[in-house]
C-alpha cells in the first residue's frame, strides 16, 4: 500500500452502521460515514447550503440529512438530493486496512 495522500481518519469500529463522524485534518473538515450496508465513505464535512457540519446530521441508508434545513445528499456520490441543497458535496476515496479507515484527501 502506498500511503501517499492517504490519511488515517479513525478506527473502523469508531463508526456505527448508519452513522457519521467528524474528522479534522490540517485546515480541512470531513465527514466519515458508514452506510446501512456497512460501507465507508468520506465527503467534505460541511453542508453546501449553510456550512452546518454534517456530523450532526442523520444517516438513513445511503443518504445524509443536514441537521439544519433537512437538505439531503447521496453519500457515495455527494449528489444533492433535496432542497434547499443544490450544490453537490465533494467526495474522497476511502479504504479500510488493518482496522483503520483511511481517506485520500490530496491527490
UniProtKB/TrEMBL annotation:
Q: Does the keyword Metal-binding apply?
A: yes
Domain of life, per UniProt, equals Bacteria
Per its UniProt record, what CDD domains does this chain match?
A: Rieske_RO_ferredoxin (cd03528)
Q: Which Gene3D superfamilies match?
A: Rieske [2Fe-2S] iron-sulphur domain
Keywords from UniProt, A to Z, are: 2Fe-2S, Iron, Iron-sulfur, Metal-binding
PROSITE patterns linked: RIESKE (PS51296)
- Residues covered by the Rieske domain: 7-103
Fetch the Pfam families from UniProt: Rieske
PANTHER family (alphabetical):
3-PHENYLPROPIONATE_CINNAMIC ACID DIOXYGENASE FERREDOXIN SUBUNIT (PTHR21496:SF23), FERREDOXIN-RELATED (PTHR21496)
Q: This protein is called what?
A: Rieske 2Fe-2S domain-containing protein
Q: Which organism is it from?
A: Paenibacillus sepulcri
Q: What is the lineage of its organism?
A: Bacteria, Bacillati, Bacillota, Bacilli, Bacillales
Amino acid at each position: 500500500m502506498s500511503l501517499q495522500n492517504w490519511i488515517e481518519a479513525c478506527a473502523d469500529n469508531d463508526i456505527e452502521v448508519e452513522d457519521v463522524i467528524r474528522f479534522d485534518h490540517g485546515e480541512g473538515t470531513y465527514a466519515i460515514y458508514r452506510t446501512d450496508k456497512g460501507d465507508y465513505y468520506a465527503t467534505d464535512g460541511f453542508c453546501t447550503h449553510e456550512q452546518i457540519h454534517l456530523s450532526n446530521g442523520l444517516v438513513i441508508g445511503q443518504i445524509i440529512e443536514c441537521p439544519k434545513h433537512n437538505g439531503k445528499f447521496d453519500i457515495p456520490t455527494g449528489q444533492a438530493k433535496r432542497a434547499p441543497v443544490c450544490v453537490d458535496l465533494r467526495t474522497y476515496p476511502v479504504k479500510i486496512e488493518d482496522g483503520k479507515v483511511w481517506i485520500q484527501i490530496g491527490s
